[in-house]
Structures are given as structure tokens and as C-alpha cells.
Amino acid sequence: MKRLLLFGLLLAASSAAPATDLLDVFRQALERDASWAAARAAYRAGIERAPQGRAQLLPTLGLSAATTETDLALKTPTVNNTFNYRTDSYSLTLTQPLYRKQNLAEYAKGQSGAAQAELDLAGARQDLALRAAQAYFGVLAAQEAHETAVAEKEAVGKLLALARRNFAVGVATRIDVHEAEARYDTAQAQEIAAASELEVRREALRAIVGEAPTALAPLVARLDLGLPEPADAERWAATAQEGPRVKSQEQAVAIAREEFEKSRGGHYPTLDLTAARTYTDAGGSTFGTPVESTANQVGLLFQMPLYQGGNISSKVRETAARLDEAEQRLDQARRQAAQQAREAYLAVTSGAARVRAIERAHASNQRALESTVLGYERGVRTGVDVLNSQRELFRARRDLSQSRYDHLVSRLRLKAAAGILTEQDLEDTNRLLAH
């Protein structure tokens, strides 16, 4: 008795535990998804390009120190002596670039690199939101498909048992029994396949959140099957061309352009302001006396490259080709963004129409099955007719479930394709779930 009571309490506690919803999955993914963690690490690395580029315009300060031992044998017509002494020295040198075309290009490249890192992170966050939603609804769809397969097998099993009883009393044919057996075997195979697919979907969600998913909040609210706002595929395509992924490629073009300017800067002269302080303390000299000196120097250093074996010209040609490549990839990114937005828009509109059509088909199949069962009871329809009606009803049920989840994901995918998917969109979708 105590064991039954304890089991009942545990069962009540487990049933009272809240189900995991879409926002829970997304927040877990923000903490545990490996791709998102890699994107954040890439962002932290990418934003360091800005201070690295800025450093090219700032002065450099260096300190050097040395100590040496000298053993000098000096022999002249008047001197024949050996000198042994130590020399200590240090030098403090400051260099401020005044004009270096390469450094200016490196600074601009660093700014573009940091901006690109921010855009890439924004795109990765949207990608994570979409992947989390796809995995979440993938599990729900697989669960419903498995439940439908189990229900279909049970329904066919009941008809099989009925066919066998009717055959035993002579009111059904062997054909009815064989047909019911074949349908039951098929239903078993479908149940096994549905269970396997459910495990695959669970593993896909586990890969994102880092642990086995618990009970998920199911979809309970009726879907909004209206047109997206704005109801214009071209406006969505135009928005997509301004999204973070296209903007990131624009920064890639800017980086390639600055790299080209940097390579061209190899032909340009450089001008630096230099300042140095040098101190030397020699314990001896060729004159036999110690020497201590301090020198302060300020000057301008001009350098002009004349010939470097064709290396600079080759780099200019290489970076020019890289710039052309980046520009072509930008054009490709814009076209792909527009294409994906149009396809996503079409998926939303056609998906809504498909949900409506399957809802009508499901209702029609439900009525058809009821009529067929009634006809079977009256002897005007056969068991095969009932099996066929059942099959069509369960097929419509599976299709309806899948189409509803596909429509939800399509709406989120449209926002992601346009580059405007936010956590608020997930919150709006999350309100359709049972809590």
C-alpha cells in the first residue's frame, strides 16, 4: 500500500512538472549550442581587428639595453697595449608614423572587420533561433506522427480481430482476413518507422540544447493562416537584401578593397617622426680612459621603395583579383537572399492554403469513415472498404499535423530569410503552445 501511495505521489509530481516550451529550448540553446558558442568566439576574435588597425596609426615606443665586455689589443708605432673594459648602454626610441598608406588601409580594414564580426553574430543568432524552432517542432510533428501510427495500428488490429471472428462464423471471406492482416503488418511497419523518426528528431534537438529533451509543450491554438505582412514577396526580397548576411558580405568587399589599397601602398613613400635617447657607459676606450655619453635625437625618416623584385606588383594584382571575387560574391549573396525570401514567402502562402485544404480533407475523410462503418454494419460495405477509409483518414491526420508545423516554421523561416527574425517572433509563436 505504501509503495502504491509513493508511486502515486511521484506520478503526480512528474505530471505537475511544467513542459518545456519553445522559449525554454531557445534559451537553453543560447547556453549550450556548440555552433552558437563558436560564433560568439569568432565575434570576440573579430572585434579585435578594430584596435589592431588603430594601432597602426599610433606611436611605438621601444627600449633596448646591452652590456658588452671588450678585450682590445692595440698596437701602433707609438702604442702597444691591451685594454679590457665593459660597456653598458640603453636606448629609448619613439616612432610616430606621419604618412604610411599601408597603415591607413590597415586601420580601415580593421574597422570593417569588426563591423563584419557584429553582423555575423547577428546572423548566427537568427540562425540559432530558426534551428531551435525547427528542431522543436520537428519533435512535436514526429510525436504526433508516432501517435497516429499507434492509433492506426490499434484500429486496424480491431478490424483484423473482427474479420477473423466473422470468418469463423461464416459472415466474412478469407480475402477480408488477408487484407486486414496485410494492413496490420503495414501499420506495424509504419509505427516502427515513426518511432525511429521520433528518436532522430529528439537527437536533433539534443544536439542543440545539449541534453535529452523533456516533455514539450504541444501546439493547441489555431494557426493564423493569413498572408504575411507585408503581403508582397518583392518587399520581403528587398528587405532580405539589407539583412545581416548581405551586409556582412558588403564588409567583406570593404576589407578586400582596403587590402588592395594596402598592397598599392607598397609603391608609396613613408614618413615617420623619430625620437631617441641613448646612454652609453664604457669602462674604457682606446685612449685608456672611461667614456660616458648621453645622446638625444629627434628627426624625420623618409623611405622610398624603389625595387623589390616585383613582389609589390604581384600583390597588387592578387588583391585586385580578390576584390573582384568579393564583389561577385556580394552580388551572389544579394541574389540568393532575394531568392530565399521569395521562396519562403511562397512557402508561407502555399502552406496556409495546404493547411486549409487538408483540414477539409480530414473532415471529409472522417465523415466518409463513419458512413463506411455504418454501411459495413448494414452489410452493404466490406471490411476492405473500412480499411481503405481508415487509411485515408489517418493519412489526412498525419498530413494535417505535418502541414501545421511546416506552416509555423515557414513563417519563422521567412523572417530569417529577410534577416529580421527576433526573439519576439519566438515569443509570438510560443503563445500558440500549451503552458
UniProtKB/TrEMBL annotation:
<dbReference type="GO" id="GO:0009279">
    <property type="term" value="C:cell outer membrane"/>
</dbReference>
<protein>
    <recommendedName>
        <fullName>Channel protein TolC</fullName>
    </recommendedName>
</protein>
<dbReference type="GO" id="GO:0015562">
    <property type="term" value="F:efflux transmembrane transporter activity"/>
</dbReference>
<keyword id="KW-1134">Transmembrane beta strand</keyword>
<keyword id="KW-0998">Cell outer membrane</keyword>
<feature type="signal peptide">
    <location>
        <begin position="1"/>
        <end position="19"/>
    </location>
</feature>
<keyword id="KW-0472">Membrane</keyword>
<keyword id="KW-0812">Transmembrane</keyword>
<dbReference type="GO" id="GO:1990281">
    <property type="term" value="C:efflux pump complex"/>
</dbReference>
<feature type="coiled-coil region">
    <location>
        <begin position="316"/>
        <end position="343"/>
    </location>
</feature>
<dbReference type="InterPro" id="IPR003423">
    <property type="entry name" value="OMP_efflux"/>
</dbReference>
<keyword id="KW-0732">Signal</keyword>
<dbReference type="GO" id="GO:0015288">
    <property type="term" value="F:porin activity"/>
</dbReference>
<keyword id="KW-0175">Coiled coil</keyword>
<dbReference type="Pfam" id="PF02321">
    <property type="entry name" value="OEP"/>
</dbReference>
<dbReference type="InterPro" id="IPR051906">
    <property type="entry name" value="TolC-like"/>
</dbReference>
<keyword id="KW-0813">Transport</keyword>
<dbReference type="InterPro" id="IPR010130">
    <property type="entry name" value="T1SS_OMP_TolC"/>
</dbReference>
<comment type="similarity">
    <text>Belongs to the outer membrane factor (OMF) (TC 1.B.17) family.</text>
</comment>
